[in-house]
From TrEMBL:
Consists of three domains, a large central CORE domain and two small peripheral domains, NMPbind and LID, which undergo movements during catalysis. The LID domain closes over the site of phosphoryl transfer upon ATP binding. Assembling and dissambling the active center during each catalytic cycle provides an effective means to prevent ATP hydrolysis. Some bacteria have evolved a zinc-coordinating structure that stabilizes the LID domain. This is Adenylate kinase. It comes from Pediococcus cellicola. GO terms for cellular component: cytoplasm. Belongs to the adenylate kinase family. PANTHER family: NUCLEOTIDE KINASE. It catalyses: AMP + ATP = 2 ADP. Keywords: ATP-binding, Cytoplasm, Kinase, Metal-binding, Nucleotide biosynthesis, Nucleotide-binding, Transferase, Zinc. Residues 38-67 are annotated as: NMP. ATP binds at G18, A19, G20, K21, G22, T23, R135, T144, Y145, Q208. One of its GO terms (biological process) is AMP salvage. One of its GO terms (molecular function) is zinc ion binding. Zn(2+) binds at C138, C141, C158, C161.
Length: 224
């Protein structure tokens, strides 16, 4: 793509927990030099900067409540109104549901920054359960292992301190992981259908080497 021929990349990045979204997000940002807008980060920034929506969000968070869509939408719109998004951006963690997807469509039309691609990193949920529930920790020294990617050199013995007792965090237990993936699948399915109908959805295979996943993403983004 030559000089000014390049289309502004306004992306949404999707994927279930464990699909490798964080790794791919970093690669996209490094190559295409667009701001990575993750809802967690912009919430923290809006609260720290005391923006109108940040103050509103803080009220809910301080009480341990979920931030309503209207406030989340407001914080995203505040962030997308900033000048650094004029040359493109990548949203991560938003939209989370169909109402937010409609709100995003409205605000990006208003700001003249319409989404032109939704990248969905797809990995079979059974593979994700294995990826996410494989982590275990040495009870004695806290060294972290993974049964698939980083097992101890000698089975049942910690490489660091030689102890033999390990445990799993609640978050990493297969049942917890299965539940988390089921909840996220339920949220993501209507979004996938929504963007598919709009011909904005590009699904890439996340169950391959990290660099091969990125090659697939690159192909999509360079074609836009």
């Amino acid at each position: 793509m030559e000089g000014n021929m390049m289309t502004t990349l306004n992306l949404v990045l999707m994927g279930l927990p464990g699909a490798g979204k964080g790794t791919q997000a970093q690669k996209i940002v490094d190559e295409f030099k667009i701001p990575h807008i993750s809802t967690g980060d912009i919430f923290r920034a809006a609260m720290k900067n005391g923006t109108e929506m940040g103050i509103e969000a803080k009220k809910y968070i301080d009480q341990g409540n979920l931030v309503p869509d209207s406030v989340t939408d407001g914080i995203v719109e505040e962030r997308l109104s900033e000048d650094d998004t004029n040359a493109g951006f990548m949203l991560d963690g938003y939209p989370r549901n169909i109402d937010q997807a409609h709100a995003l469509e409205t605000m990006t039309t208003k700001l003249d920054k319409s989404i032109n691609a939704v990248i969905n990193i797809h990995v079979d949920p059974a593979v994700l359960v294995e990826r996410l529930s494989g982590r275990f920790i040495c009870k004695n020294c806290g060294a972290t292992y993974h049964k698939l990617y980083n097992p101890p050199k000698v089975e049942g013995t910690c490489d660091v301190c030689g102890h033999h007792e390990f445990y799993q965090r609640e978050d990493d237990k297969p049942e917890t992981v299965k539940n988390r993936i089921a909840v996220n699948t339920k949220l993501n399915t209507p979004l996938i259908d929504f963007y598919n109908e709009k011909k904005l959805l590009y699904t890439v295979n996340g169950d391959q080497d990290i660099n091969d996943v990125y090659k697939e993403i690159q192909k999509v983004l360079r074609a836009i």
